[in-house]
Amino acid sequence: FKRQRLPGCQTSPININHKPIIQQYLFQQSHGLNMSYVDLNSIIDIRQSSASNILAPSSSKSVLEPIIGPSGDSGAVLSSDPDVDAQILISVAFQSAVKVFSIAFKADTNSPQNASGPAKVHVFVDRPSLDFSEASSTTPVQTLNLSEQQLSGNPIPLRFVKFQNVHSIQLFVEDNHDQEDVTFINRIVFQGAPLQGMNMGDFKDQNADHDH
Questions:
Q1: Which of helix, strand or coil describes residue 29?
Q2: Over the range 144-155, which residues count as b (16 or more CB within 10 Å of their CB) and which as e?
Q3: Which residues form the PITH domain (predicted)?
Q4: Taken in order 158, 161, 165, 168, is the CA torsion positive or negative?
Q5: Are the CB atoms for 30 and 13 separated by under 8 Å?
Q6: What is the pLDDT of residues 116-172, one digit of tens each?
């Protein structure tokens, strides 16, 4: 049996000022300017995100925050539980609906022993309660067959039309490149845009409604 889903809880508050990013995008959009996609990691809700079948850290710091949070940690490593198998299931929640254009994976540093970077990743949308059994038997929105070169953090375009109103994304890592017992990931980055006509009040500090 795979380990219980581990939430991305954190003991210290995360103060994120993401409004300038969203305001810049909406300004470009309203003025008909060329729009570049923004880094959506700044509006990920860490506390509502989770990971399953991972090797839990010894510290109380969030498991996922260095991997999917607004600022990555160069030494961060998320790895599957070597006592189970190489599969990983990650659920990433956004603070409000977004359009997702691409996902970038980094798995090229600080590799644990007998570990390899992800090879096949199935992407689901708005399935926060997805488990391994469902992920294995349900048709994903898109499947990413990652080359080793793509694990250096280069954005991988998604079928944009399928990711237009996203509240959460689930990533099912089915296997890794070298068929090792452990899969590891250093960083995951999402690029995209807020929805049109979004109320800026919807983008609030993700800690505002939580006690510390």
A1: helix
A2: bebeeebbeeee
A3: 29-210
A4: negative
A5: no
A6: 999 999 999 999 999 999 999 999 999 999 999 999 999 999 999 999 999 999 999
